[in-house]
C-alpha cells in the first residue's frame, strides 16, 4: 500500500476548510416551510414554491417566513420542489421553472420551465423601514388596475383604492413573467414603478420585510391563470346577477316600487334585480351626521315608507323574478350602536376612536356583531348588498365581504354570494364579487372611460366589473341625453355585469322613461343580453376554471398586433365576440378588425382583417362582430334569468375555420358546481366537413338543461335533440 503524502493531505484539508469557511461566511441554507432561507451579505432571503404556480422571494433583515396576507389563498397542498445548491447560486426548482439567488453578487434570476432566463440580475436591498426589490425588464407591462393610468400599458402602480378606482400590486410583463407584491401590512400594500432610463422595475415594500411572488407567463392568459392559482379562483355569482340590474337613488315609496315592477313586466323589459339607495332603510342620509351619531338612526331596519311590509313585499318581487339589493355603508349612524363599537374598539381608528364612524372589518368580533345585526334583513328577503364608500383602508371591502359572506353561509347554506362594491383588492374575487366604476358623470367622456376601467379591472383580477349605466349624475347644463343613455345600455350588454344607476336629482334610467324610440332600442339591447346568457354564463365557468376574464382587451388574443396594445373602445367578450359600441354621439365610428375573418352580427357580412371600417348606426343598432370558427349559444328572450321557457337552444356557427366552445349548465344558485355538479357540452366545428359535433359530460340534470338545439350557420338551419353525443352535418 502506497503511503499517504502528508503534505498533500494537509494542503487538501486546508483548501476544503477554507472553502467551507468562505461558503459559511457568504451563505447559509436553512430549510423552511415551502422552500429555503439563505443569507446574502447581511440580508435574509427566502425562496419559496407557492400554490403550485408561483415562486416567492422574501427579503428581510431577520429570519422570516412567508408573510401572512389576505391577498394570497392558503395552499391546500405543498408544491413539489428541489433545492439548487451550486456555489454561489442557491434556490429551488419546480415543474414551472426555478428561482436562484447569487450570494456573491447578491442578485437573483428567474427561469422558465424550459430553462430560459426571464429575469437576470434582479437585486434587493433593505433599509430602515423599507424593502426594495428590483426587476430588470424590457417588456410591456399590463395589469395593475385603473388608478395610476387608464391606459392598458402601465409604468407603475400606486396600490390604492378610491371612488371607482383600484390599483393592485401586480403586473404582467411581455418579457414572459408576472409579479405580485405583498408587504407586512396589507393596508400599506407594495408599490412598483418603472425607471424611465433603465426600464428596471422597482418594488417598494413598507416595513421590515417584503414578499415578491413571481411566475413564468408567456401571455396574458398564462398570467391570469397563475394569478388565480395564487390569489384564488373567481367564484361565480348567482346566475341572476348576470341579468339586468336596475338601480336608482330616489325610490319614493312602496307604491312607486310596485309600479316600476309593473312597468318592466308589462312592457316586456327584462330585469332581475332592483337596487335601492339610502331610502330603503333611512329617510335621510348620514353624510352630515356628528361623530356621536343620532338617536334612533335606522342602521339595520327597513324604512316604513318604502317597506311597510318588507317580507311580503320582497316575496312578491321575487315571485316576479326580481331580487332586492340594498345599499350599505361602512359606518354606523345610530348613537347606541356607535357607543357599542367604540366600547369594543371596533372603529377604523382604534388609536383615535372618536375620529370617525367607519368600522374596522378586520376585527373578527365586529364582523360577528355586524352579521348578527344584519341577519333579520336577510330573513325578511334582502338578497344581497351594495357596498359603497369603503375606501378608508385598503382591505375594507375584503373584511366587509367576509362579514357578509359568513352571514350568508350561516343563514342560507350553500347559496352563492354576490355583492356590488366600489373598489377591490387582490383575492376579493374568491367571494363572487363585483366592482363598479364609482360615481361617474353622465357624459360621453365618462362613457368612453368605462371600458378602459373595466378592461383594466379584468387584467387586475376583478372578473365581474360594472358601471352606472347612464352615469350617476349629470348637471343642469349637461344632463344625460336619450342617445347617450341608449348607447350606454348597448355597451352594457357586453360588460360582465349590466347595471344602470342614477342619483336622486335626475330622471331614473328606466328604459320606459325616455320615450318610445329609446324604449325600443333599450329593450332590444336587454333582449340581446338575455339571449347571450348561455354564452356569458359559460365564460364565468371558464374564468373559474382557468382564470381567463369574461371581458378581454384585444391584446389578449392578438398579442403581436401593436394597433391593439392600448385599444379600449372595442373589446372581446370571451375570445369570439368583438363589441364596438357607439361611445360618441352621432351614430358614426371607425372600427378596427384584427387579423381574422369577422362576421357582422346584424347582416352576416364577412370582413377580412386586419382592416378599419366605418359604420353609421341607427339608434337601435350596435356594432358587433363574430370571429370565424365561433360557436355562440343563444337562449330565448326571457324576462328574468330564472324563467324557463322550455324552448330550444339556438347555436350559431360561423364558418371559415375549425372552432369549439364549452357550454356549461348548472343550478345557477348553489356552490355545487365547485364539486363538479355541472353539465358541460363540448361543441366542435369541423370546417372542412361542415360538421358540428358535441359531447356532454357531467352529472347535472336539472330542469333548466337545454334538451333541443337549433343550429344556424349562414342561411342553413337544422334542429336536433341535445343528447349526450351528437353530430349534424351541413
From TrEMBL:
It comes from the Bacteria. GO terms for molecular function: hydrolase activity, hydrolyzing O-glycosyl compounds. Pfam families: DUF5110 (PF17137), Glyco_hydro_31_2nd (PF01055), Glyco_hydro_31_3rd (PF21365). InterPro entries: DUF5110, GH, Glyco_hydro_31_C, Glyco_hydro_31_TIM, Glyco_hydro_b, Glycosyl_Hydrolase_31. Residues 234-539 form the Glycoside hydrolase family 31 TIM barrel domain. Keywords: Glycosidase, Hydrolase, Signal. Residues 649-711 form the DUF5110 domain. Coiled coil: none annotated. Residues 547-632 form the Glycosyl hydrolase family 31 C-terminal domain. Residues 1-27 form the signal peptide. GO terms for biological process: carbohydrate metabolic process. PANTHER family: HYDROLASE, PUTATIVE (AFU_ORTHOLOGUE AFUA_1G03140)-RELATED (PTHR43863), MALTASE-GLUCOAMYLASE (PTHR43863:SF2). Belongs to the glycosyl hydrolase 31 family. This is DUF5110 domain-containing protein. It comes from Mucilaginibacter conchicola.
Amino acid at each position: 500500500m502506497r503511503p499517504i503524502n502528508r503534505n498533500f493531505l494537509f494542503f487538501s484539508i486546508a483548501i476544503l476548510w477554507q472553502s467551507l469557511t468562505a461558503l459559511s461566511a457568504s451563505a447559509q441554507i436553512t430549510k423552511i416551510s415551502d422552500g429555503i432561507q439563505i443569507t446574502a451579505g447581511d440580508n435574509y432571503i427566502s425562496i419559496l414554491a407557492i400554490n403550485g404556480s408561483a415562486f416567492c422571494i422574501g427579503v428581510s433583515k431577520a429570519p422570516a417566513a412567508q408573510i401572512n396576507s389576505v391577498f394570497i389563498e392558503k395552499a391546500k397542498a405543498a408544491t413539489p420542489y428541489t433545492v439548487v445548491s451550486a456555489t454561489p447560486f442557491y434556490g429551488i426548482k419546480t415543474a414551472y421553472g426555478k428561482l436562484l439567488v447569487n450570494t456573491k453578487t447578491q442578485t437573483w434570476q428567474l427561469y422558465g420551465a424550459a430553462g430560459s432566463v426571464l429575469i437576470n440580475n434582479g437585486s434587493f436591498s433593505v433599509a430602515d423601514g423599507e424593502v426594495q426589490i428590483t426587476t430588470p425588464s424590457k417588456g410591456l407591462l399590463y395589469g395593475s388596475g385603473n388608478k395610476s393610468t387608464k391606459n392598458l400599458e402601465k409604468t407603475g402602480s400606486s396600490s390604492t383604492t378610491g371612488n371607482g378606482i383600484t390599483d393592485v400590486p401586480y403586473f404582467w410583463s411581455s418579457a414572459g413573467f408576472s409579479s405580485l407584491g405583498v408587504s407586512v401590512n396589507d393596508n400599506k400594500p407594495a408599490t412598483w414603478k418603472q425607471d424611465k432610463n433603465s426600464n428596471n422595475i422597482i418594488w417598494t415594500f413598507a416595513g421590515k420585510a417584503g414578499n415578491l411572488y413571481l411566475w413564468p407567463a408567456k401571455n396574458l392568459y398564462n398570467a391570469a391563470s397563475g394569478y388565480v392559482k395564487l390569489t384564488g379562483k373567481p367564484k361565480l355569482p348567482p346566475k341572476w346577477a348576470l341579468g339586468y340590474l336596475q338601480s336608482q337613488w330616489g325610490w319614493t315609496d312602496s307604491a312607486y316600487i310596485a309600479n316600476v315592477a309593473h312597468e318592466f313586466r308589462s312592457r316586456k323589459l327584462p330585469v332581475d334585480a332592483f337596487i335601492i339607495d339610502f331610502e330603503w332603510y333611512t329617510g335621510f342620509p348620514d353624510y352630515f351626521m356628528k361623530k356621536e351619531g343620532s338617536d334612533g338612526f335606522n342602521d339595520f331596519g327597513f324604512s316604513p315608507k318604502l317597506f311597510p311590509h318588507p317580507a311580503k313585499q320582497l316575496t312578491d318581487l321575487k315571485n316576479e323574478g326580481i331580487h332586492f339589493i340594498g345599499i350599505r355603508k361602512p359606518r354606523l349612524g345610530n348613537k347606541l350602536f356607535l357607543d357599542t363599537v367604540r366600547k369594543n374598539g371596533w372603529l377604523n381608528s382604534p388609536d383615535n376612536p372618536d375620529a370617525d364612524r367607519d368600522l374596522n372589518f378586520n376585527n373578527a368580533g365586529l364582523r360577528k356583531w355586524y352579521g348578527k345585526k344584519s341577519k333579520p334583513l336577510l330573513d325578511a328577503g334582502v338578497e344581497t348588498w351594495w357596498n359603497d364608500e369603503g375606501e378608508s383602508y385598503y382591505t375594507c371591502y375584503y373584511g366587509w365581504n367576509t362579514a357578509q359572506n359568513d352571514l350568508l353561509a350561516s343563514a342560507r347554506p350553500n347559496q352563492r354570494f354576490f355583492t356590488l362594491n366600489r373598489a377591490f383588492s387582490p383575492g376579493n374575487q374568491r367571494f363572487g364579487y363585483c366592482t363598479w366604476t364609482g360615481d361617474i358623470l353622465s357624459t360621453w367622456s365618462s362613457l368612453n372611460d368605462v371600458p378602459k376601467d373595466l378592461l383594466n379591472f379584468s387584467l387586475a383580477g376583478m372578473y365581474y366589473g360594472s358601471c352606472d349605466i347612464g352615469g350617476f349624475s349629470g348637471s343642469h347644463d349637461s344632463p344625460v341625453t336619450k342617445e347617450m343613455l341608449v348607447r350606454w345600455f348597448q355597451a352594457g350588454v357586453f360588460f360582465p355585469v349590466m347595471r344602470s344607476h342614477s342619483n336622486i336629482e335626475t330622471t331614473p334610467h328606466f328604459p320606459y322613461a325616455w320615450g318610445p324610440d329609446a324604449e325600443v332600442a333599450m329593450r332590444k339591447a336587454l333582449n340581446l343580453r338575455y339571449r347571450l346568457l348561455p354564452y356569458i354564463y359559460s365564460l364565468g365557468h371558464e374564468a373559474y376554471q382557468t382564470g381567463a376574464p369574461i371581458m378581454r382587451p384585444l391584446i389578449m388574443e392578438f398579442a403581436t398586433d401593436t394597433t391593439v396594445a392600448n385599444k379600449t373602445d372595442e373589446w372581446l367578450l370571451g375570445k369570439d365576440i368583438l363589441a364596438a359600441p357607439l361611445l360618441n354621439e352621432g351614430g358614426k365610428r371607425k372600427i378596427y378588425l384584427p387579423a381574422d375573418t369577422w362576421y357582422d352580427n346584424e347582416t352576416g357580412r364577412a370582413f377580412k382583417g386586419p382592416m378599419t371600417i366605418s359604420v353609421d348606426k341607427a339608434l337601435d343598432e350596435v356594432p358587433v362582430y363574430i370571429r370565424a370558427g365561433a360557436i355562440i349559444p343563444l337562449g330565448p328572450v326571457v324576462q328574468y334569468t330564472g324563467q324557463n321557457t322550455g324552448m330550444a337552444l339556438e347555436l350559431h356557427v360561423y364558418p371559415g375555420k375549425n372552432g369549439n366552445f364549452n357550454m356549461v349548465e348548472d343550478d345557477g344558485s348553489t356552490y355545487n358546481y365547485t364539486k363538479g355538479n355541472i353539465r358541460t357540452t363540448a361543441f366542435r366545428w369541423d370546417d372542412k366537413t361542415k360538421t358540428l359535433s358535441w359531447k356532454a359530460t357531467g352529472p347535472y340534470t336539472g330542469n333548466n338543461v337545454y334538451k333541443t338545439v337549433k343550429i344556424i350557420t349562414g342561411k342553413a338551419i337544422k334542429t336536433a335533440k341535445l343528447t349526450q353525443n351528437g353530430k349534424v352535418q351541413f
